[in-house]
């Protein structure tokens, strides 16, 4: 096979690593001037492969390998959402303590996310943290993975907050465990006729939380009418709209045609907090006092959940700690040496294996 020294197709760091029989990280440490340790035999192999392939390192890769790139890019779906605001707070705090600046970008969906990652790479950050929309079946998934692999090959580190089974480190929480716990609380509190507010079907957290809730309800002998499961798109306004639609169509409250053989709904299980808050507003708009006539639960424990009236029963997620863990993962990548045990690229960083339930006024015992 001809060596890749054609000017029209310059050798990449991946080419050098493959020819030398070492990892991309090892090749980067040798060629980009990292201060981390590399075994002498690996060093020789990489240098020989680079010479044969006429490889030329770039200045950006050298800067990242030496740990001098000054910033982390954080991408979120919606900076106005208290969930992402809390995660961002954790990222900014942890990075600031290490003298690293954070640039925050907004990417509402998979297409915008891919474009934002491409722009972020061009700014030469030390790391890219993606706290994103979680659309697991998006057609942009393959291109996103390729873009981030190329970025990591040059010495950067990509970390996800919540995992989509991509080959990158991810901070995760036990979505299904938390969902089972909140559903059990609903059942144990005496509710038998729930409406459920979920997200889009290809949204990972929504899938996991819905599966946990439905399993617990099913085991309790509660058959959920498909019309009682509405898409609130993890949005306050859409959560409000979903409950208003249940009311307009006569499904919500007792009467002919209402859910559960005309008895209507006695609880709203929202799979995130902002949908729950929107639902409570919609209930009031229909003359129903949440927490008295209909119980309401959320998921996430955003700061506002304790301040709304009635205060929201929810699943606590350590949002600030999730952001901090992502920063720790980015910065730890620059402290690893060649003698350290290799870490799987898609390892999960669980900051909470069993989410806590916060019982507040919105779900009184019946």
TrEMBL record:
Gene3D superfamilies, per the entry: 3.40.50.2300, lambda repressor-like DNA-binding domains (1.10.260.40)
Pfam family for this entry, one: Peripla_BP_3
Keywords: DNA-binding, Transcription, Transcription regulation
GO molecular function: DNA-binding transcription factor activity; transcription cis-regulatory region binding
SMART domains linked: HTH_LACI
PROSITE patterns named in the record: HTH_LACI_1 (PS00356), HTH_LACI_2 (PS50932)
Source superkingdom: Bacteria
Protein name: LacI family transcription regulator
Native source species: Bifidobacterium ramosum
Taxonomy of the source species: Bacteria, Bacillati, Actinomycetota, Actinomycetes, Bifidobacteriales
């Amino acid at each position: 096979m001809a060596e890749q020294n054609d000017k029209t197709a310059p050798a990449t760091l991946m080419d050098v690593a493959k020819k030398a029989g070492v990892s991309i990280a090892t090749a980067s440490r040798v060629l980009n001037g990292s201060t981390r340790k590399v075994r002498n035999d690996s060093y020789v192999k990489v240098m020989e492969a680079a010479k044969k392939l006429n490889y030329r390192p770039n200045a950006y890769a050298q800067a990242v390998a030496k740990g001098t790139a000054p910033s982390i890019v954080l991408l979120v779906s919606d900076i106005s959402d208290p969930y992402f605001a809390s995660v961002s707070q954790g990222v900014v705090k942890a990075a600031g303590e290490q003298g690293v600046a954070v640039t925050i970008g907004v990417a509402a969906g998979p297409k915008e996310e891919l474009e934002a990652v491409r722009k972020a790479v061009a700014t030469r950050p030390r790391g890219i943290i993606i706290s994103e929309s979680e659309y697991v079946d998006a057609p942009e998934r393959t291109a996103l993975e390729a873009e981030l692999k190329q970025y990591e090959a040059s010495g950067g580190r990509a970390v996800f907050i919540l995992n989509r089974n991509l080959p990158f480190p991810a901070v995760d929480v036990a979505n299904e465990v938390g969902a089972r716990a909140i559903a059990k609380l609903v059942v144990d509190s005496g509710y038998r006729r729930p409406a459920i507010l979920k997200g889009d079907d290809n949204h990972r957290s929504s899938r996991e939380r819905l599966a946990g809730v439905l399993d617990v309800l099913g085991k309790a002998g509660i058959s959920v009418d498909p019309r009682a499961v509405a898409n609130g798109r993890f949005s306050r306004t859409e959560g409000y709209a979903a409950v208003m639609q249940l009311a307009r169509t006569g499904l919500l409250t007792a009467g002919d045609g209402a859910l559960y053989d005309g008895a209507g709904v006695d609880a709203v299980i929202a799979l995130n907090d902002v949908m729950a808050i929107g639902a409570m507003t919609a209930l009031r708009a229909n003359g129903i006092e949440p927490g008295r006539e209909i119980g309401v639960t959320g998921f996430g424990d955003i700061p506002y959940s304790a301040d709304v009236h009635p205060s929201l029963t929810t699943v606590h997620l350590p949002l600030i700690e999730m952001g901090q863990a992502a920063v720790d993962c980015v910065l730890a990548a620059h402290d690893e040496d060649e003698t350290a045990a290799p870490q799987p690229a898609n390892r999960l960083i669980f900051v909470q294996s069993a989410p806590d339930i916060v019982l507040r006024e919105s779900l009184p015992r019946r």
